[in-house]
Amino acid sequence: MTQDYRKFLLPEEISRISRLEIRARQIVEGFLSGLHRSPYFGQSIEFVQHREYVQGDDIRHIDWKVWSKTDRYYIKQYEEETNLKTTLLVDLSESMLFGTGAMTKYDYACTIAAALSYLLLKQQDAVGLTSFDSEIRARVPALSRRNHLHAILSSLASEKPAKKTDIFEILRRVANDQTRRGLIVLVSDLFTDREGLFRGLKMLRYRGHDVLLLHILDDEELDFGFTGITKFEGMEETGELVCDPNSLRAGYLKAMGEFLAEIRKYCSGHLIDYQVIRTSEHLDAALAYYLNHRLGMHQSVRH
Amino acid sequence: MSNWLAQYFVNSSYIMTGGAALVAVPVIIHLINRMRFRRVRFAAMEFLLQSQQENRRQILLEQLLLLLLRVLLVIGLIALISRFILDSTQMSMFRGTQLHHVILIDDSVSMRDRWGEQQAFQEGLKIVRKLVNEGAQRPGTQKLTLLKVSDPQQPIFTQRDLSQSFLNEFEAKIENLRCSYQAVTVVEGLQSIGKLLEQERGSIRFVHLISDFRNSDWGEESATSKAVQSLAETGITINLIRVVENRHGNLGITSLKGDIQVAASGVPLRLNVGLKNYSQEVVRNIRLSLLVDGERLPLSLVFEQIEANEEVNRDFDILLEKPGWHQIEVALPEDSLVEDNRRYLAVNLEEANPVLIVDGNPSGSEGEFIADALAADPQLTGFAPIVSDTEFLRKQSLDRFQTIYLVNVPELSADAIEAVEEFVKNGGGLAWYPGSLTKPAFYNDKLYQKGKGLFPVKLAVASKLLSNPNVTSTKPDLSFSNHPVTEIFQGQDNPFIEGVRIRRYFPVADDWNKDDQSRNDGTRTIGKLKNNNPFLLEHHFGKGRILTVLTSAGPSWHQWTSNPSYVVFQLEMQKYLARNDLSVVKHLVGEPIELKLDASEYESSVQITSPSATGEFVTRLTATPQKKSKKSPQNNEPENGKVYLEAEYRDTEIPGIYQIQLSDFNKITIDDWLAYNLSNAESDLELISSQKLREDFGKNSSIHIQEPGQYQWIQGKAAGQEMRWTLIIFLLTVLVLEQLLAYRLSYHSSSSSVRKLAIR
C-alpha cells in the first residue's frame, strides 16, 4: 500500500514544486500571518471553547486559571484549522482512465492532488480530499498535520475509477459540508453534464469558496491524432463509433474547442480559476505557471 | 464482345483477361480497410459523435469522390496499357463518321532499290498490308483508298470499307502490284488526293505517303514539300512513311547516243555512252557489256575508275552488217538499282544513205567533187550520192534522200522550189553552193524572201575575188566559230584548214546586217573569210537544217578540194544535215506512242510489239480518223487536204524497244522502232534525312514522319499519339486530384491551432 500511494508523489516532482506556494486568492480567516491574508488586524490566537477534561486528554491543555476559580478541570480548545482550508475534489469516473501517454488522466489527477497536498501541508495549510464518481467515494477531512499527507495519498491509491460522473450532486454536497470559506480544487476531465457542473460551481462560489478548476485532458483528446479506421468505444456508456478519424477531426476539434471555450467563459465570468492541463506536460510546469500567475490575474480586494 | 472491344483497344486481350477486374481493386481495398479497424476506448465520445453527426453527408461524398478518382485512375491505367484507340480526332466516331485512310505508294523507279533480300517497293507494300490488316480488325470504322504515284487518276481501291471479307480481294490485287519504271514525283498524287478528299470534309482523313524520300524530290522549297504542306493545311493528317533507311550506291547509264541517222550497213557506227556514279565512293573496273539484237558482243567497255558523283562519257564503234532495224543495248553489272543499268537504242541501218546532188551546170563537174568526197567508196562512208540536174527536183520524190545539195544552181522553177521546201520542212537537209551561174537577183527574190526562204542571206550582185594584199600573211583565209560541223577543225592542230586558200566567193549584199545578234533572224554565221565576209551559214526551215557555203563546190573558185579537210568537212556537213527526224529521239517510259498516219497511204491496223518481263508481246491497234474539233489552230493546218488516222498506245511501261509495224495499201510493211529508256532523274538514291524533313515540316503537327523498319505506329496509328498523351494527361490530372483530396482528408500534425486550445 505504501508503494502504491507513493507513486503519486515522486521525489523529482517534489523537488521541482517545493519552491511553489499556494496563496489564497481571497482573504481567508487565519492566524498565521504572512502567507494568507486574515480578516482580522493584528496577531491573535483563536480560542474556541473550554471543555471539561475527560480522561485521556493532554494535561498540557488544562486551563489552570479556570481550575483555580472553579476547581474543575477544563481544557482549552484551540482552532486547529489554519488560515487556508483546501479541499481537493478528484474525479474518479471511468473516463479518467483514458490515456495515451505515460500517464492516464487519473494518474495525472492523483499526482496533481498529491503535489498540491504536499505544498499545502508544507505551508501548514489544511488539506482535505474528496474523491468521487457518481457519488462520493472517499473523504479525508481537512487537517494541516504533516502526517496527514499519508492519509490523502492512501485514499487516492485505494480508489479505482469505474463509474460515471454526477458532478452537481457532488458539488452540492461539498458546498453543504464546507461551512467555512476555503479553496476548492476540482481536478477532473469535466466530461459530464455541463449544466450540473456550472450549477455546482455557482453554488460553491455563492458560498464564498475560492474555486480552482484543473481540467485534465489527454493529448489525443485535444489533438485527435488518430489515423486509420478506428472503432471508438465510449467510456461511461457513451456509445461506440467506427469511423475514419481523419474525416471527423475537424468537426471533433471544433466541438472540443467550443466545449473548452464555454467552460473558460463561464469560469472567467464567475471568478473561477480555470486551467487546462495536458497529461503530456510536466506537472510542475503546469502548476508553476498557474500558481505564479494566479494572483496576478485578478486582484483581490480587501474587505 | 472481344470484337467490340477490339474496336477500341489495341490490346483488348488485357481487358478480357482481368483488366476489368482491376477496376474493383480500389473498392475492395476500401472495404477491407473498413473491416480492419483499431479499437480505442475513448472518453471524449460526445464531441466525436457530434462531429460525426454534423459531417456525415460530407464525409460520405468525399469518400465516394476519392473512391471514384481511384477507380478512374485504375481505368486510365488499363486504358493506357491496353492502348485505348479513341483519340481526340476520333471522337467523332460516335457521330457515325469513319476514318478514311488514303495510302499513296510511291512506285517510281527509285522504289525498285534493292538491298539484301528487300526491295523498297515491297517494303512499302508490307506497310500497306499491315495497315489494312490492322484496319480490318475494326470493321465498319475504316475506309481505304489506295493510289499509285505513277497513276494517281486511277486508284487501286476507292473508299473501300475495311473488313475481313475485303482482305482476300485486297491480297489478290496487292499481289499483282508492281513498281513502275517511271520517274514521277508524288506531287500529282498529292494533288489528286487533295481533290479526292475535298468533298468529304466531315470525315477524319489520314494520308499515308509511302516513299523512299530522295533528296532530289524533297527539300524545303520543293514542289513535293509544298504539296504536302498545302494538303496538311486542309486539316488532313499526313503520315510520311519512309521505307529506305540508308542511301545505296548506284551506277547508272545516263545516255546512249550517236549519229544513227547516217548509219549504214558495213560502216562503223560511232556511239557514245554516258555513265554516272551515284554514290559517295569511287568505283573501279566497271565493265559495260554491249548487246546487239539481244546478243552479247564479244567486246565490252571497261571504265577503270569513276569518282563519286562523276559522269563519264565514252565513244565506241560498232559495226552492223545487215540493213534494217537493230536493237543496241548497253548493260552494267547489277547494283542496288538494276533498272538504270540498261539502255536501249534503235538503229535503222540503211544499205547506203542516198544523197541528191543537183548541179546547175549541165556540163559542170562541181557536184562530182562532193559526191566523191561523200562516197569515194560507198562501203566506207555509207552514202550513196546521186548527181542530177534541177529537173530531178520536179519529177522525182525527194523523200528517200537524206540531204540535197544545190550546187551552182542558177534558178529553180516554182514547183521545184515547192518540192525542196516540202522536203526541208519535213526534216531533210539542204546545202547551198553558189557558183558562176548563180543569179543573185533570183536568189534574193525567190529564195531569200527576206529571211523566210530557203536561202539565208541577201547576195551582192556578183561574186568577188578574195583580195590578198599581203602574200606573206599567215592568216588563214577561213575561220570557224564553234559548231558541230566545224568542231573537228577547232583547237591548235588544224594545219589543213589553215592551208585552204579561197580565191573567189559570193559576198553578201551590203545592206544585209552581218551581225548575227543584232539581226536575230535565226541565221547563224559559222565560218567567215578573212575579210569578215560570211562564208558558212546555217539556218532552219521547218524541221530541216540548211547550210550555205558562199563559194563553189568544186575547185573553180578555190583549191580546197585538194586539201584533205575538204572530205572531212563534207562528211561532217552530211552528218549534220542528214534527216534529223531519224536521229535519236529520247523516249521515256510511260510516254504514249502517238501515231498519225496518212489515210491515203497506210492501212488503219497497227501492230506494236512491246518488250515485257517474259519476252515480247504483240498488240494490234486500229487507227481512227482524228477529231478535228480538239485541234488547236496551229496544228489545224489543212494538211494538204489529207485525212489522218490516229492511234495511241499507252502501255510503254517497260524500258526496251517498241516495234511499230505499219502496212501501206501495197501490203508493204514499214517498221519503226522506238527505244524507251528510263529517266536519269531516279538514279540518284541519296535520301533526305528525317531530321531535315522534320525541320521542313516541324511546325505542322499534323505531319508525322515514320522511320523505316518500324511498324509500332501502325498499331498506334488508330490509337494515335495524341490519344496516348491525352490519356497520360488525364491520368496525371486524376492522380493530382486524388492526392489533393487524400491530403485534404488525411491528418497533418503540424496544426498549431490545436495547441492553442490547450494552453491559453
Descriptive account of the structure:
The complex is a heterodimer of chains A (303) and B (760). In chain A, 44% of the residues are buried. With 303 residues, chain A is α/β, with parallel strands linked by helices. Chain A is built from 10 helices and 10 strands. Chain A folds into 2 domains: 2-25 and 83-297, 3-Layer(aba) Sandwich (Rossmann fold), CATH 3.40.50.410; 47-78, no CATH class. A 6-stranded mixed beta sheet of chain A has the order 5-4-3-6-7-10, sandwiched between helices. Chain A has a two-stranded antiparallel ribbon with strand order 1-2. Chain A has helices at residues 2-6, 11-17, 64-70, 105-122, 148-158, 167-177, 194-206, 219-223, 245-269, 283-297; strands spanning 47-52, 74-78, 85-91, 126-132, 136-143, 183-188, 210-217, 230-234, 240-243, 273-278. Chain A is elongated, with a radius of gyration of 22 Å. Chain B has 760 residues and is of the alpha/beta class. Chain B has an 8-stranded mixed beta sheet, sandwiched between helices. A 6-stranded mixed beta sheet of chain B has the order 6-5-2-7-8-34, with helices on both faces. Classes of the chains: A alpha/beta (303), B alpha/beta (760). At the A-B interface, helix 8, strand 8, strand 9 and helix 9 of A face strand 1, helix 4 and helix 19 of B. Strand 8 of chain A pairs parallel with strand 1 (38-42) of chain B.
